[in-house]
């Protein structure tokens, strides 16, 4: 069963195109994480918030990534990290067209 990891935190930027440029290597590295399926990057420049919604193939993979990622972003000086791991109701998610499978390039 796949699991969603939701992470958000306060961040003073960069956002938008600048974020895409500065974090592209990080984005590519996330693709190599064990159990990783996909990520949606989130940002709210007006409130200085950023984060993401991730899909992992197991709850253990989501937790392992969260542990590692929390240490990484804490090393950047980010402290107020909000994170939750959720089970997914696949039946209802399929009805509402939620992507539960890996993206094919």
Please characterize this protein's 3D structure.
By secondary structure, the chain is α+β, with helices and mostly antiparallel strands. The chain has one domain (3-95): 2-Layer Sandwich (Alpha-Beta Plaits), CATH 3.30.70.100. It is 35% helix and 30% strand. It is built from 4 helices and 4 strands; from the N terminus they run E-H-H-E-E-H-E-H. The chain has helices spanning 16-22, 24-30, 59-75, 90-95; strands spanning 3-10, 36-44, 49-56, 81-87. A 4-stranded antiparallel beta sheet has the order 2-3-1-4, covered by helices on one side. A hairpin with a 4-residue loop joins strand 2 (36-44) and strand 3 (49-56). The longest helix has 17 residues, at 59-75. The model has no long low-confidence stretch (mean pLDDT 92). GO terms for molecular function: monooxygenase activity. Pfam families: ydhR. It comes from Bacillus australimaris.
Helix content range: 25-40%
Shape: globular
CATH-defined fold name: Alpha-Beta Plaits
Termini separation (Å)?
Answer: 23 Å
The tally of structural domains comes to 1
Based on secondary structure, the structural category is alpha+beta
Give the tally of β-strands: 4
Instruction: Give the class-level CATH name.
Output: Alpha Beta
The share of residues in extended strands comes to: 25-35%
**CATH architectural designation:** 2-Layer Sandwich
